[in-house]
Amino acid sequence: MNIRSIVYCIKQGFVNIRRNKLFSLASIGTIAACILLIGIIFSIIINVNEMEKSVEKKIGITVFFDKKATKQQKEKIGEILKNDKRVDRLEYTSADEAWKKFKKDYFKDDPELAEGFASDNPLADSESYTVFLKQIKTQSKFVKDTKKIEGVRKVNYSNAAKKTLNNIKTLLGYVSLALIVVLLAVGIFLINNTVMIGISVRKNEIKIMKLIGSTNAFVRAPFVIEGVAIGVIGSVIPIITLMVAYGKLINLLVEKFGMFANNMPFASATTVFSILIPLSVGIGAGIGLIGSAFSIRKHLKV
């Protein structure tokens, strides 16, 4: 098609939207609701991922040595752990350091009680490495492999944080998938009906255009543009709403929950919307394209 034909098709697409205002608004509203829910779920998932990264940096796995392990064996264990690709960083804690930390945490109110252990460290066998992993999902396999290393007596780790995060992510995944499938189906159905009304109004015009030699692409284009335009408009509205609400919600959480919220690693608006904006517009345009393409196809045969 030449430039004039393209401009004509674009104009006709928006003319169709004006003609079918009621159905167009219903379609835009449905798509907006769909994108809004997708945006909310996506924002939650991004923030759960940020929490997971924070947990990965804070939760350590403690590796204790056999009582008879030599200095060389302990150094070898450290080298094995340090060279493991799953390990982010490694911290060594001597028995004396472990006792000092224990005294500080548990005898801070009664330091005199700790004096009885001045010449006999009760944590003499607590020399250890604390391992921080790059990804918490590798924890189970890493612990299993570490227990097999010669000279390792015990491996302490917390599985609760990993299970909680995985359960949240799994639940969000199922809920989001179900909602998205239902809302996409409703959106496509409404756009299909909206475009069908425009086709019924111009049914005779379409037949004449086909009889005088107009191509399928030329006849289809205004209706496809109508559907895509409805989809894009429907995606822009919730994005603007979410952009305004996201920052205010983060500020509200910080104000209401104080120190707890300050320690929560919320994802920045840039991180969330750099992905959400193109994703939402793409979904909206896709719904419009599919809905309009299905509605016009059977009317191209004259």
Describe it for me?
Helix content is 72%, strand content 8%. The chain is α+β, with helices and mostly antiparallel strands and 302 residues long. Strands 2-3-1-4 form a 4-stranded antiparallel beta sheet, sandwiched between helices. Helix 2 packs across helix 8 (216-262). It is elongated and about 95 Å long. The protein starts with a helix and ends in a 5-residue tail after the last helix. The mean pLDDT is 76.
Helix-strand layout with pairing:
Blueprint: H1 3-19, H2 21-58, E1 61-65, H3 71-83, E2 87-93, H4 95-106, E3 128-133, H5 139-147, E4 152-156, H6 160-201, H7 203-211, H8 216-262, H9 269-297
Antiparallel strand pairs: 1-3, 1-4, 2-3
Helix pairs in contact: 1-8, 2-6, 2-8, 2-9, 6-8, 6-9, 8-9
Number of strands: 4
How much is the radius of gyration in Å? 31 Å
Order of helices and strands: HHEHEHEHEHHHH
- Unreliable segments of 5+ consecutive residues: none
User: What's the tally of helices?
Assistant: 9
- Rough shape? elongated
Give a quick summary of the entry.
This protein has helices at 3-19, 21-58, 71-83, 95-106, 139-147, 160-201, 203-211, 216-262, 269-297; strands spanning 61-65, 87-93, 128-133, 152-156. With 302 residues, it is α+β, with helices and mostly antiparallel strands. The radius of gyration is 31 Å and the shape is elongated.
Task: Please tag this protein with its features.
alpha+beta; 302 residues; 4-stranded antiparallel β-sheet
